[in-house]
Amino acid sequence: MSAYRLPDGRQITGALTIRTGARRPEAKYECLVCETTETVRGVESVTEFVRTIRTTHPATCPGVPQKTRNEPVAA
Q1: Pairing relation of β-strands 11-12 and 4-5?
Q2: Disulfide-capable partner of 45 in 28, 40, 52, 70 (CB 3.0 to 4.6 Å)?
Q3: What pTM did the predictor assign?
């Protein structure tokens, strides 16, 4: 699988799913480039994961070209 290209040229490279309301909240990130899935559970873990995943995963993703790894991720 690869990134999903949008008509304006941007790409969707991953999906972040957050489940709240359960006994233990859960967050899951699925990378469309390298097909990695990362999951965390618990309030503190989910909070930190959601705050950092957009920079930590692209920095280590084997499918992201080296030259783009240090570029900021758009909000």
Answers
A1: antiparallel
A2: 40
A3: 0.74
